[in-house]
Amino acid sequence: MAEPKGKRDFRDSPRLDPKERHQVEYWAKRWGVTHDQIISAYRKVGMMVKDIALELGKKR
Questions:
Q1: Fewest Cβ atoms closer than 10 Å to its Cβ: which of 1, 28, 47, 56?
Q2: Pfam families given for it (predicted)?
Q3: What is the pLDDT along the chain (60 residues), one digit of tens a residue?
Q4: Three-class secondary structure assignment of 8-48
Q5: Are 11 and 25 spatial neighbours (Cβ–Cβ below 8 Å)?
Q6: Rg, the chain, Cα only
């Protein structure tokens, strides 16, 4: 059975979409880094949040 709509959001997704400003702002605040650091890590390691976190030395 599928989850009801509205129960999941981008924080449940294993991927980061840098075009979605709210996603970048959320992770920047959570990890205590800048928007530019997240975009730089995204370009280096790809879209997976766990990989970006490792690149920044943070936990997902």
A1: 1
A2: DUF3606
A3: 455 565 557 787 899 999 999 999 999 999 999 999 999 999 999 999 999 999 999 987
A4: CCHHHCCECCCCCHHHHHHHHHHHCCCHHHHHHHHHHHCCE
A5: no
A6: 12
Q: Other CB atoms closer than 10 Å to residue 40's CB: what's the count?
A: 15
Q: How far is 48 from 17, CA to CA, in rounded Å?
A: 9
pTM score, whole prediction: 0.81
Provide the 3-class DSSP secondary structure of residue 2: coil
Smallest Cα–Cα separation from 16: which of 34, 38, 44?
Answer: 38
